[in-house]
Design brief:
By secondary structure, the chain is mostly beta strands. The chain contains seven helices and 23 strands.
Length: 472
């Protein structure tokens, strides 16, 4: 059964923390964004997807993107310095579970395409403020620029994500990377077996990061998604569906499943945004499945953990942290081997290594999704989930549904122990005799069996468990 989610007025709690390694380039650019004009780059369209081949169970893709400058100033597009966009692509799947609940997972990511010049086309407007003919080194406002899937998959022009600060747009130039594997190296890699899931739909999103766009605090609209069609083992196409502009992939989950709720969390007022999603479903056996997802749009601090109240003493056997691995030599390891699931003091936590102990721990970096799930007998109740920021150690609280704390029914001894001293004895018997009556509608201490009278049945209950302690 799907559960309609209501939060009964619970508010999103935020702790404003300003993240980002500021630098001279970013600060200088930010001052230009303080006036009345500024560029604003978005993904206007994901227009094609290319499959490059399969090696050792990994299929490599690249996604064609069409950028639009919807601002009111030119966007610099220099090929030989760090004043150009970096472009990322990712692939996701939405699984429908037996309960009817759905679950979104990121299953692939690319390295970053480095832009080199911008055509001046009209996907998002008239392009009346063109930067000129040919392929100039800036993009006019109301103008668009298409990059084919072939260009976005050109291995020699892809750089690692770890070098880009998505909050400020800053990156060192030229990009690093070293050598790369033929066919799949640096490209958008997906384990082919993950494409074979039944009851699954697929989608991709793309994002542009640029220092001028970030300086103008226009980075929160930079990602767009589009649904994919799959045929055969690993052929993906976009088909007739349309790009959903200025919305990252997690919003496809909400669009597909009305049981899902998305909450947007802004860590500061400029380019530090994460999206949190949740679905809770009741299973046929009366248990409940909880699914929490965190999408980091552009938070440089990254997300290093998620925790929620939990009434059990042990980690649920089906608890799962699903994160997409990095590849092709980026410093981050496979995240599934670095996240721990623990229960401690009534809290269930999914956490990666701390930044202090391992700066290269695989937190949820930008344009990345982490999904966490488990099943418990506890029905949902209103509460809060804590989202742990990796580099700062700050915690953001989100009002949401969490497992209710189970209340164990009292034992027969505990029922008969009317004065709660741990033993059924003469004191408890005295309470029954002292409240002996045929009418106890208002409630009497001696009414052991709750039938609104203190009589022989209550006396027999006390005598039946005489000398029984609460552990018996």
């Amino acid at each position: 059964m799907k559960l309609p989610i209501t939060l009964g007025g619970l508010a999103l709690g935020t702790a404003a923390v300003f993240i980002g390694h500021m630098n001279s380039d970013a600060i200088a650019a930010r001052s230009n964004g303080g006036g009345e004009t500024a560029p604003d780059v978005i993904v206007g369209d994901l227009h094609e997807i290319m499959r490059h081949g399969q090696v050792n169970g990994i299929t490599a893709y690249s996604v064609g993107t069409n950028s639009c400058n919807i601002g009111n100033d030119y966007l610099t597009w220099e090929p030989n310095n760090n004043q150009h966009p970096t472009i990322g692509g990712s692939i996701y799947r939405i699984l429908t579970l037996e309960s009817g609940c759905t679950k979104i997972e990121q299953i692939g990511r690319s390295w970053l395409k480095h832009g080199f010049c911008a055509l001046q086309q009209t996907l998002c407007g008239s392009c009346s403020n063109s930067a000129g003919g040919g392929c100039p080194s800036r993009l006019g406002w109301n103008c668009s620029d298409p990059y084919s899937a072939s260009l976005n998959g050109q291995q020699s022009n892809l750089g690692p994500r770890e070098e880009v600060n998505p909050t400020t747009g800053y990156f060192e130039y030229p990009p690093g990377g070293g050598s790369y594997a033929a066919t799949i190296g640096r490209r958008l890699q997906v384990p082919t077996d993950l494409l074979q899931a039944e009851n699954a739909s697929f989608l991709a999103d793309g994002i542009y990061i640029h220092p001028e766009d970030a300086a103008a605090c226009n980075g929160n609209n930079n990602a767009s998604y589009r649904r994919l069609n799959k045929s055969g083992t690993n052929t993906l196409t976009f088909g007739g569906n349309q790009t959903v502009r200025m919305s990252p992939a997690i919003f496809a989950w909400e669009a597909e499943d009305p049981n899902v709720r998305i909450t947007t969390i802004d860590i500061s007022d400029c380019n530090e945004r994460i999206h949190y999603g949740q679905s809770v479903c009741e299973n046929a056996d009366g248990s409940w499945t909880y699914i929490y997802s965190v999408y980091n749009l552009n938070l440089h601090s990254a997300v290093g953990g998620i925790s929620m109240p939990f009434g059990g003493d042990a980690v649920p056997s089906d608890a799962e942290a699903n994160l997409c691995p990095y590849h092709s030599g980026e410093v981050y390891a496979d995240p599934t081997s670095q996240w721990d699931t623990t229960v401690d003091s009534g809290t269930l936590s999914f956490m990666c290594e701390s930044y202090a102990s391992n700066p290269d721990a695989t937190a949820i970096m930008w344009q990345s999704l982490g999904t966490f799930s488990f099943t418990t007998d506890s029905a949902p109740t209103e509460g809060f989930v804590d989202i742990h920021l990796h580099k700062t150690g700050a915690i953001e609280q989100v009002a949401t549904l969490v497992p209710g704390i189970p209340v164990n029914p009292p034992t027969p001894c505990e029922i008969a122990d009317l004065n709660d001293d741990g033993l059924v004895d003469g004191t408890d018997l005295s309470l029954v005799l002292g409240f002996w009556t045929d009418d106890c509608g208002g409630g009497c201490i001696g009414d052991v069996n709750d039938d609104n009278k203190v009589d022989g049945a209550d006396l027999s209950y006390i005598l039946g468990f005489w000398n029984c302690d609460d552990e018996g």
